Amino acid sequence: MYRDIAASIVKAIRDGIFVTKLPTEAQLMDRYNVSRNTIRKAIDLVYQQGLLRRVQGSGYFISKIELRHKTVVNLSARSIQGGENQPHNLESKVVTFDTIKSDTALAKQFGIPVEEELYRVIRLRYWHHQLYSLETSYYLKSVVRFISVEAVNSSIFSFLEEVYGIRVANSDDYLSLTNLNEEEASLMQADHGKTYLTLDSSNYYKNNGLFNFSHTVFAYPDLALYFHTTNLANN
Fold first, then answer.
1. In terms of DSSP bridges, do strands 91-101 and 117-127 run parallel, antiparallel, or are they unpaired?
2. Is residue 106 classed as helix, strand or coil in its secondary structure?
3. pLDDT tens, 50-73?
4. Which terminus, N or C, of the chain has the lesser number of Cβ atoms within 10 Å?
5. Average pLDDT for residues 147-158, to the nearest whole number?
6. Residue 52 and residue 202: Cα distance in Å, rounded?
7. Which of 199, 220, 226, 189 is nearest to 77 (CA)?
8. ∠100-125-185 over CA atoms, to 5°?
9. Pairwise CA distance, residues 199 & 86, whole Å
10. Could you report how far apart the first and last alpha carbons of the chain are, in Å?
11. What residues form DSSP beta bridges with 204?
């Protein structure tokens, strides 16, 4: 319940319904017809995504993470459906959607035996008709038994949450500057060896089970990455 409310709050922030600060807890309780404890859990989840600032005695204010002339990607927004770590309304061009058997590298990445089955999805993603990223992702078939073609062409994570109740509980993310290999350069119509910003993500669901690994090469110009950090000593 509180996750659905958190997703609704995120949407309200994105749609400009909540502009400067959140309504009070009492007002949100009336809005969603739930208990104070549920509202607090929902607010805390949105806060963890870096979308709110808590001001003692004044409530929660909406964080302004935009940068002038920059496209901001919120890498803290993982655990709320609709709060993906990317701009919204991305268009996908699927290059590959198949089942493979893990090689030594993927087996080590997932902590599984060699030749265990994985879904593989390679897709070019576009925003405002301009190349945003090249994404190669793998999903453990023992956890994710089926992925629809429709999901591959839109949002796989939303599909997994809706159908299987699988959502990202935590993730390990590694940013690096890497040079394009021949296949990447060909798909992106870029120069072989050219340097791009890349993100390697290992995504875990409940009980710390790894279900997805992805390698994303960002191509969109003037891109900025946003992280939210909370100082626990001040909480």
1. antiparallel
2. helix
3. 788 888 888 898 877 665 556 777
4. C
5. 92
6. 26
7. 226
8. 70
9. 12
10. 25
11. 170, 210
Residues contacting residue 95 through CB under 8 Å, at least 6 positions apart: 122, 123, 124, 187
On the 0-12 / 13-18 / 19+ scale of CB atoms within 10 A, 181 is exposed
Cβ atoms of 84 and 76 within 8 Å: the answer is: no
- Beta bridge partner(s), residue 173: 201
Helix (H) and strand (E) counts for the chain?
7, 10
What is the C-alpha to C-alpha distance for residues 230 and 235, in angstroms, rounded to an integer? 8
State which amino acid sits at residue 78.
R
DSSP symbol at 79? S
Residues 224, 67 contacting (CB under 8 angstroms): yes
Angle at 1 between CA 226 and CA 230, to 5 degrees: 30
Provide the phi-psi class of 217: left if phi over 0, else alpha when psi is between -120 and 50, else beta. Answer: beta
- What token pair was written down for 180? 């394009």
Neighbours of 178 (CB within 10 A): 14
| Statement: the pTM of the whole predicted model exceeds 0.85 | no
pLDDT mean over 82-96: 73
| CA pair distance 87, 234, nearest whole angstrom | 31
Residue 197's DSSP bridge partners are 177
